[in-house]
Specification:
globular, single chain, 1 helix, about 160 residues, Pnp Oxidase, Chain A, mainly beta
C-alpha cells in the first residue's frame, strides 16, 4: 500500500545504536541510489551486457530544512567527526500533535561527516539550509525489526 512522506526523520547517533531526531527536515536525497552498470560486452556479443557495480552517489547527501541558528550550531558541534546517521520513514502521531519516529516503513543507515550550507534567499521566502553529509560508509537498509511477511509489501 502506498504511503506519504509525512513522518520522515533525519536521525543521528554517536554510537550507531541509539538514534535521536536531529531536526525537522523538508527533503531527503535519494535513498539507496541505483548501482552503476559495469560493462562486460565482448566482441562476440550482439549487444552490450552489464553486471551491477557499486552504488552511484554524488559524494554527499543533502537534507533540506528550515534555517534555524540552533540547527547550524548542531551541525557545527559535530566538527569533522564521522557519526552515524539514519533516515526513518514512519512515525506515531501523539495526542499533542507531535510525531514520534518509529521507522516502520524503513530505516536507512550510514556513517558520515556533516556540514551545512545556507540556501539562496528570495523575496518573501522561507530561509532554508541544506545539511550535507559526506558518507564514509555506504547506506544500507536496517532490517532489524522487520515484521512484514513475504508478499506483504512495504520495506
Amino acid at each position: 500500500m502506498p504511503t506519504i512522506s509525512y513522518a520522515s526523520f533525519l536521525m543521528h547517533s554517536d554510537d550507531g545504536k541509539t538514534y535521536t531526531k536531529f531536526y525537522p527536515i523538508k527533503t531527503t536525497p535519494e535513498l539507496m541510489a541505483p548501482k552503476e552498470a559495469v560493462e562486460t560486452t565482448t566482441l562476440e556479443d550482439s549487444g552490450r551486457t552489464y553486471i551491477p557495480g557499486i552504488r552511484q552517489t554524488d559524494g554527499s547527501t543533502g537534507f533540506t530544512s528550515n534555517y534555524e541558528l540552533e540547527y547550524v550550531r548542531k551541525v557545527e558541534e559535530l566538527g569533522e567527526q564521522d557519526t552515524y546517521w539514519s533516515v526513518w520513514l514512519g512515525g506515531t502521531e501523539n495526542n499533542d500533535g507531535t510525531v514520534t519516529p518509529t521507522g516502520e516503513f524503513g530505516k536507512y543507515n550510514f556513517k558520515g561527516r556533516a556540514s551545512y550550507a545556507v540556501s539562496e534567499q528570495s523575496v518573501n521566502g522561507v530561509r532554508e539550509m541544506t545539511t550535507n553529509i559526506m558518507p564514509s560508509q555506504a547506506m544500507y537498509r536496517d532490517k532489524t525489526g522487520d515484521t512484514l511477511t513475504p508478499g506483504g509489501g512495504g520495506n
